[in-house]
Specification:
The protein contains no helices and 17 strands. By secondary structure, it is mostly beta strands. It is globular. The mean pLDDT is 85.
């Protein structure tokens, strides 16, 4: 189905907003001209145009940890909020270095974030197209964690995460305000 910006695509109860979509309240709308595509409960718009995105240092973004290569984590950018408070999809990747996780020494970045975690981070700098992130501030860090043993979504408990499925506890660099404040 062809869509244009503003076309209703569904609700948050039905789908997860994906590429080239915006979430307003619980309604998902197209943010680009293209074809509506639904795969694995994610609704996205396959854009017919190549519109470049612009990130600036200081902007807060949300991304998923895609890979960890000590001492860095590769973050697949998901989205940021625009000046009107709407979610804007971000294509591409960014780097989170162990030195940008907290002020204290971080021996291994995989002790602070794990593959699959959803993190809120701030853009530190952009150099030659490479985006560098930080999660040092209290409101930045892991929003949603998945158990490394069984991959179930974990609950926040006492400064860490707890898996009620396999009763595993794991530590992370947790975002103070959690999911409610930004996701």
């Amino acid at each position: 189905m062809s869509v244009v910006p503003g076309t209703p695509l569904g609700t948050e109860e039905e789908y997860i907003p994906g590429a080239n979509t915006v979430l307003e309240g619980s309604d998902i709308y197209a943010s680009a001209v293209g074809e509506k595509n639904i795969r694995e409960k994610v609704v996205r718009v396959n854009s017919k145009t190549n519109v470049p995105f612009m990130l600036k240092p200081g902007e807060v973004v949300v991304g998923r940890v895609a890979e960890i290569f000590e001492p860095v984590a590769l973050i697949e950018l998901q989205w940021r909020r625009d000046e009107r408070g709407r979610q804007v999809w971000l294509p591409g990747y960014a780097v989170l270095h162990a030195s940008n996780v907290k002020d204290a020494y971080v021996k291994n970045i995989h002790d602070e974030v794990k593959i699959g975690d959803l993190v809120r981070a701030k853009v530190v700098k952009i150099q030659r197209g490479d985006v560098e992130l930080t999660v040092k501030e209290r409101e930045l860090g892991v929003l949603v964690a998945y158990c490394t043993k069984c991959r179930a979504r974990m609950e926040r408990k006492r400064g860490g995460f707890y898996c009620s499925n396999c009763e595993e506890s794991e530590g992370r660099k947790i975002a103070e305000y959690g999911v409610e404040g930004f996701v």
